[in-house]
Structure formats: C-alpha cells, structure tokens
Amino acid sequence: MTFEEKQAEYARLIVKAGAAVRKGQRVYFSCPIECYEFGRMVVKEAYLAGALEVVVHWQDDVVARLRYDYAPLEVFENFPEWKALEMNTYAKTDVAFIYLTGSDPEAFKGVDLQKQEAAMKASHEALKDFTKAESTMAVKWTVLAIPSRAWAAKVFPEMNVDTAMTRLWDAIFATVRIGSGDAYEAWMKHADTLAEKCRILNEWQLDSLHYTNSLGTDFTVGLVKNHRWEGGADIDKTTGDRFFANMPTEEVFTMPDNRRAEGTLVSAMPLSYRGTLIENFRFTFHDGKVVDYDAEKGKDCLTSLLESDEGSRRLGECALVPYPSPVAKQGILFLETLFDENAACHFALGNCYETNLEGGADMSEDELHAHGGNTSMNHVDFMVGTKDLKITGIRKDGSEVMVFKNGTWAF
Ligand code: ZN
Ligand code: ZN
C-alpha cells in the first residue's frame, strides 16, 4: 500500500469502524486545523457512508494557547451558553461524534493552572447532558489521532520534522492495523477476541485483583459488585451499532471500588498530563484513597491533579492490556494517552464509566457512589503494566485464579 492508500484506508476506517456512520445520520467532526487535508478526506468518507450532514469544528492549539495566555480568568469560569446548547442538543439527536486529536503534548505547558481548572469545571457543569450521552453510549463517538508537526517533533526529537511526521504516521497506521489486509475486518476480529475475555471475566465476578511486579508494585484493588468488563467495540444503546470509542484500543476494563484499594502502585511509563511529563511516580493507597505519592519529575503537576476534587484521589478505571501490545511494539512513547494507555495495563484516577456497573447508566450520582463508583471532573490514565506483571484474581470465597502471568493473559 502506498502512503496515500493508507491514509484513504484510515479515513474509511474512522468513519466505518470508529464512528460506524449510518445513512441519514448527522456527523459532528472535530479536527485540528493543521490537518485540514486529511480532515476533508474524513468528511468525504462520511458523506459517502450516507451522512445527512457533517458539522466540522476546526481546532487550533496555538489559538487556544493564546486564549489561556491573554484572556482573563473570568472568561474560563463561564462556559458559553450557546456552545453548551449546541453540544447538549446534538447529543440528543441521531449523531456520531468524530474527534481527531494531534496535539503538541506541550501545547499547554506552563499555562495558568487556575484558568485550566476553571475551564474544566465550567465545561464539566455545562456539558453534563452531552457527557452523559457519551458515557452511557446513547450516541456513537470515536477518538483517533493524526500526526501534527509539533507532536511528531516531540516524539522523535532526534529527527528532522518531515521524517518524524512519516515515522509517526507509520506508527499510527501500525497500531490501527492498516497496511496488511482489510483493516475493517481486522478490527471486527480484534473486537471478538476482547469480547471473549470480557465474557469470561464477567462470569468470574472476581472480588479483587492483586498486582505484583519487579518495579515494586504490590497492590490490591477491589472490584464493585456486579461489575462489567468491557473492551473492544462499544454498542450504541439506541441502535445496537458496534463502534469504537477509541482507536487503537487494546484494553478490557472495569470499575474498581473507590473504597477498596490498598498498597503501592508504581508507574511503568511516564504520564503526559496537561503538557507536563510526570516521570517515575508511585502512589500508596489506603481505603481506596491515595494517602502518599511521589514522582521523580513533575510532582507539582501530580499534586494539582490529586487536589482538584475528592474523586481525583480515588480510582475510576481498572484496565488490562497484554504485553507487548501493538502499541508497545512500536517501542516509542507517543506522549498521547490514546496510544500510551493501550501500551500497558493501567488504572485511572477520577471518574468511572457508569457502564462498568450493571444498571450503572441509570443510577444517580449518589447511587453510583453507594455501589463504589467514583465521580470526578478528571479521568487520568496511568500505566502500571510490565512484562513481568502478575495479577491474581481473588474470588469472594477467598480462592484464587491467575489472570495475568508474565505480563499477559493467563487464561
Ligand atoms: Zn483505559
Ligand atoms: Zn481511561
């Protein structure tokens, strides 16, 4: 396949597999302005798939950064009503959301944290309906990445930018299974494999998982009662369509009990959070809460994350990814969670996914809490998986079953 053929295949994959666009459906498409040529290819593919209308929102990191640098705090404290209306209203219609990201990982480095916090709080409040529609799969949505020059330069600092762009495109193609055979078919097969792991784990209904590895992780996390493991394809609640909220995706994940986490978790990869790289960090948990933490680099940033709200100190996601995944095989740090979280087993601090609990999507926030679910304005993934990671599943009667051995599936 030539580079152009691979790009065309990627645009088709985004529309057909990622967002599963159907005839007559509206598409809401967010794309970095720098990648407008590829963006136009996606728009065309969406129309070819029968989209009623493709609404495009061009994003520009540089402009967003200038806003943070020059606009006063009050601008960030107030989310525009019309914008909230737009998103919340679209989320109630027959729509598929496509988000292409290609951000410079350091685009917002050093930005006033107070403004960032204010912006997050304001949008969290204003977009509740929209967020709920996405988190309960009442609409189809998909997040994928596209290289930008600033991003490529950070991933491959030793190369000239043109070469770095080509390398990053190649790495993305490989992780989304483009280049050998029919990518769409490959994704359907991959989804079946992950669904089978979920089926078995859901049958087991383990009470807790015990993690150990040579980095010093010795950690037990409780899983909520009636938890559901999910992974691979997502199912649109209304239409039953299969779509992929993230591509690539290699994980199966479930809901940890926000009251039951004990011991030490050591990071296996750096975490790029709001433009800062946090390196070699560790958390100590007691009664589900981070009670101690440290980082060789970026500790301030970690502090600001943990202190943003009560839920940011507790876990909202527990995810299993066999080592080495197609992402890990690239041997690079993408500096982008979409990829790096699919490199290894991880947890998320902050908000849980309601669908990871039986009936969770229909619960109020209080009910969700009562079941051990976590809520927060944050959801930040950090990697803990290594090639020697061992995970033992513990059943309610205390008996054990091997879940992971030498970093990968033991069943
Ligand atoms: Zn995850
Ligand atoms: Zn996550």
* End-to-end CA span: 36 Å
Strand content: 25-35%
Bound molecules: zinc ion
Radius of gyration, in angstroms, nearest whole number: 21 Å
Distinct helical segment count: 13
Mean pLDDT: 95
Largest sheet: 9 strands, antiparallel
Q: Based on CA inertia axes, which overall geometry fits?
A: globular
Uncertain segments are: none
- The secondary-structure class comes to alpha+beta
Number of domains: 2
Describe the overall structure.
The chain is of the alpha+beta class and about 400 residues long. It has two domains: about 5-175, 3-Layer(aba) Sandwich (Thermophilic metalloprotease-like); about 205-230 and about 250-410, no CATH class. It has helices spanning about 5-20, 35-50, 60-70, 75, 80-90, 115-125, 130-135, 150-155, 160-175, 185-205, 300-305, 335-340, 365-370; strands at about 25-30, 55-60, 95-100, 140-145, 210, 220-225, 230, 235, 240-245, 250-255, 255-265, 270-275, 275-285, 290-295, 315-320, 345-350, 380-385, 390-395, 400-405, 410. Strands 5, 6, 11, 12, 13, 14, 18, 19 and 20 form a nine-stranded antiparallel beta sheet that branches. The relative contact order is 0.12. It binds zinc ion (2 copies). One zinc ion binds next to strand 17.
